[in-house]
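Regression test case RT-17, inverse folding.

Input:
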């Protein structure tokens, strides 16, 4: 296991104390089901109560304008919105959002939202001097120029997210963070899905939910989030880090229980992650973007093997 950084202890403390991991995804739905199995050429049918991953719409309104409605697993909705708006280039830091609240105005004592509409108000445009991690950016809305939201479909599914909206060149132009190269060992890469598994509480109950996790280069799972949509899970992780001022995620890995799509590589690059590790396949455009941006990318990361699409390993020539 490679150990190139000291541990990110401050991040670990913040996420463990201020964000309850038990509400990363809610699974309060259940239904009666028949389990059908084949045993000795005989069909066996038994009754059972099945736990289901919750999927509900979340309508997001920005400055009074309908932005989109996405299908998601309720829980950590504020993080989801921060991550999504960051990926879309609407915000670059948490302070670009003045207020965010449920339309009904309430969150229950159990931490679960009771409404499915979020109103987001952006702050006036602010330009900050650049430093080694942040390029000079203008974010939020301007008092002199009305803020214009990008055109989006009315509904995005939990499977798709917001697909095909950005080219590789657009991602490079929008990226504020340099990608810090990493050179992990093969053993370290293979350990990452197992680290993420520890944070998959909803998956263990339902068997039908994705997870995303941020892992430091010394092998600490900083935080994990779950959602029926892989893009939503990634947005929740990135949104949480954005809200706590922990972007860019330099020399850290975004680990996903999904394939590596272009959109997920895009989110990782825009958040400043050094690597993206997935348990399934990568798409051609995802590989192209990873190679052009310098993002470490592996797919089919399971058991004792993985496909390395971009980057180098410490223990290979």
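Golden output:
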């Amino acid at each position: 296991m490679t150990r190139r950084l000291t541990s990110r202890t401050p991040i670990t403390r913040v996420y463990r104390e201020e964000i309850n991991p038990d509400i990363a995804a809610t699974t309060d739905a259940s239904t009666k089901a028949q389990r059908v199995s084949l045993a000795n050429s005989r069909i066996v049918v038994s009754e059972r109560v099945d736990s289901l991953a919750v999927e509900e719409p979340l309508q997001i309104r920005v400055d009074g304008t309908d932005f989109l409605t996405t299908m998601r697993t309720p829980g950590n909705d504020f993080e989801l919105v921060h991550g999504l708006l960051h990926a879309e280039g609407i915000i670059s830091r948490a302070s670009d959002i003045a207020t965010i609240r449920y339309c009904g105005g309430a969150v229950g004592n159990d931490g679960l939202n009771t409404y499915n509409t979020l109103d987001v108000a952006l702050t006036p445009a602010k330009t900050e001097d650049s430093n080694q991690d942040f390029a000079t950016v203008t974010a939020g809305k301007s008092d002199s120029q009305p803020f214009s939201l990008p055109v989006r479909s009315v509904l995005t599914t939990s499977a798709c997210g917001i697909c095909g909206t950005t080219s590789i060149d657009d991602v490079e132009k929008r990226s504020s963070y340099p990608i810090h190269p990493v050179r992990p060992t093969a053993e370290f890469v293979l350990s990452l899905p197992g680290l993420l598994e520890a944070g998959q509480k909803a998956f263990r109950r339902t068997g039908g939910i994705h997870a995303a996790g941020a892992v430091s280069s010394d092998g600490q799972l900083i935080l994990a989030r779950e959602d029926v949509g892989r893009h939503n899970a990634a947005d929740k992780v990135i949104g949480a880090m954005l809200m706590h001022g922990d972007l860019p995620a330099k020399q850290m890995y975004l680990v996903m229980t999904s394939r590596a799509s272009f959109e997920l590589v895009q989110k990782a690059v825009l958040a400043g992650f050094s690597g993206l590790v997935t348990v399934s396949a990568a798409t051609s455009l995802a590989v192209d973007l990873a190679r052009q941006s310098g993002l470490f990318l592996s797919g089919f990361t399971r058991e004792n093997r993985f496909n390395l699409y971009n980057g180098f390993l410490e223990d290979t020539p």
